[in-house]
Amino acid sequence: MDLETLCKEIALMETPSREEEKRVLTFAEEIRGRVSRALESEGIEALVSLEGSLAKGTWLRNEPEIDIFIQLPTSYPRESLGKTILPIVKKSLNEFRSLERYAEHPYLELYAEDLRLNVVPCYRVRKGEWISATDRTPYHTEYVKSRLDDKLRRDVRLLKRFMKGIGVYGAEIKVGGFSGYLCELLTIYYGSFIDTLSAASNWKRTEFIDLEKHYADVKEAIKFFGSPLIVVDPVDKFRNVASSVRSEKKSLFTVAARAFLQNPKREFFYPKRVVPYDLPRLKSNVLKRGSAIIFIKFTKPNLVPDVLWGQLYKASRAVSSTLDRHGFKTLRKAVWSDEDKNHVLIFEIENMNLPPIKRHLGPPVFEAEDSKRFLTKHLNSESTLSGPTVEGDRWVVYTQRRYLDPVDLLEDKLKDGGRGIGVPEDLTEAMKDSREILVNMEVSAFYSSNPKFAEFLTDFITGRPRWLESTY
Questions:
Q1: Same domain, 441 and 310
Q2: Alpha-carbon distance 146 to 305, whole Å?
Q3: Residue-wise burial string across 265-283, b where 16 or more C-beta atoms lie within 10 A, e elsewhere
Q4: Dihedrals φ, ψ of 380, to 5°?
Q5: For residue 52, how far is the Cα from the chain centroid?
Q6: Phi and psi at residue 4, in whole multiples of 5°?
Q7: Based on the domain organization, do 310 and 417 belong to the same domain?
Q8: Per-residue pLDDT for 147 more than 80?
Q9: Are residues 92 and 185 in the same domain?
Q10: HEC assignment per residue over the chain
């Protein structure tokens, strides 16, 4: 299928029908009005507005993002956002299931049949006089609406679906990718979906985009932001809209854009579902690697998703550093969570067993004080197997390893929940009380009982983007 025909087909699939648009907008306006009246009845002055992709007309079919913002006077106490405003909203919408979430400050996530909506307090401020991060959102909506036409809205939808398909859409910590607002800005800046992909396929290590030309000195601006992708917020020159985009997500977008332009396929927008290996195939794939895959499984830290994922990634880095520091080289690592009660840190290491002896490099011989400390420590130590001796211009000693098995290492270091190695405090109790350390096929029971985890682990073992197989 040629590029233009494919884009038309995807755009048609992703543009909400008139019936869906009417239903969602009617529902959103009803909720907006109810929230506004509830606040007014309590004597609270606020402008309640519809924001985000629904207000801008860039949402995807069957995936409406309903964002209702409560814009409060700047005199309103910040601590009352969660204590006063949200309870009023909950009461006015008490027939819907609701969860209190927390970003910079509390907000409500509500579920109404097949619709999800966020009700977010913020302050009504002049541009640049931000009190909270969400104060910018009404200005974002206004900016994007003033620059989009029907063609660009179509292309924003194409870009969002493309990014979802290749796994780089979402600014939340779990993903570390491109937000909806960033997709809108890229489409506005480059002028179309195809032009955005063409530009992205040639992005360099650092890319700088400044739609409103806030900065005359680009080099100084790049130094100021210090990110691989910098998109200056049109409504706030000191904010990088792309700050959440991790380097690997930027790179993945670049290579996927390049591959798609060379060989346009639906799989970029709608990747084939991962079919989990059956247990014999899983075992075969794990064993033929010759490495070892370690799973640290634990349960129930009661945290909101963005906080949870941040803590899980920190814990993963702490454990990986510990493994590396003791000679168990980490080849790859990953994190899986159902965001409820099951969480798994995954580490693939080169091998399970290390020799008892290790080489420890000491200071250069011409560093007298450091040499003295090194010799004092190792010369008569029980763990010294050979040396100290001089190799080249440095002291070297061969010592006995304390840990020959990574499970022994981890069990010891996680006795306190990992506090001593840098596991975040929010996870240490759960890690201490409920952890299981599993190696290779010891994960079979959990794999068999949890289809989502099975998909994730199969994808991890396959280890390549799903669109790649149908491209080359």
A1: yes
A2: 33
A3: ebbbbebeeeebbeeeebe
A4: -115, 20
A5: 20
A6: -65, -45
A7: yes
A8: yes
A9: no
A10: CCHHHHHHHHHHHHCCCHHHHHHHHHHHHHHHHHHHHHHHHCCCCCEEEEEHHHHHCCCECCECCEEEEEEECCCCCCCHHHHHHHHHHHHHCCCCEEEEEECCCEEEEEEECCEEEEEEEEECCCCCCCCCHHHHHHHHHHHHHHHCCHHHHHHHHHHHHHHHHHCCECCCCCCCCECHHHHHHHHHHHCCHHHHHHHHCCCCCCEEECCCCCCCCHHHHHHHHCCCEEEEECCEEEEECCCCCCHHHHHHHHHHHHHHHHCCCHHHCCCCCCCCCCHHHHHHHHHHHCCEEEEEEEECCCCCHHHHHHHHHHHHHHHHHHHHHCCCCEEEEEEEECCCCEEEEEEEECCCCCCCEEEEEEEECCCHHHHHHHHHHHCCCCCEEEEEEEECCEEEEEEECCCCCHHHHHHHHCCCCCHHHCCCHHHHHHHHHHCEEEEHHHHHHHHHHCHHHHHHHHHHHHCCCHHHCCCC
Residue 262 — very low, low, confident or very high, per pLDDT cuts 50/70/90? very high
| Arithmetic mean of pLDDT over the chain | 94
C-alpha to C-alpha distances, 430 to 199, 268, 315, 424, 446, nearest whole angstrom = 45, 38, 12, 11, 18
418 φ/ψ sector (left φ>0, alpha ψ -120 to 50, else beta): left
Q: Kindly report the CA angle at 370 between 363 and 319, in degrees rounded to 5?
A: 65
Whether 160 contacts 197, CB under 8 Å: no
In a domain, 323, yes or no: yes
Closest CA to 271 of 392, 116, 162: 162
How do 342-349 and 292-299 pair as beta strands?
antiparallel
- The reply to whether 316 and 411 lie within a common domain is yes
Identity at 420, one-letter amino acid code = G
Above 70 in pLDDT, residue 470? no
Domain with 46 in it: what CATH number? 3.30.460.10
Omega before residue 388 within 30° of 0, cis = yes
Residue 55 sits in the same domain as residue 161: no
- Residue 99 within any structural domain of the chain: yes
Number of other residues whose CB lies within 10 A of the CB of residue 441:
14
| pLDDT band per the 50, 70, 90 thresholds, residue 103 | low
Verdict on whether the full-model pTM lies above 0.85: yes
Tokens of 63: 């995936």
Q: In terms of residue numbers, what domain contains 167?
A: 148-271
User: How does residue 468 score in pLDDT terms, banded at 50, 70 and 90?
Assistant: confident
Q: Name residue 50's beta-bridge partners.
A: 68
For residue 113, pLDDT over 90 is answered with no
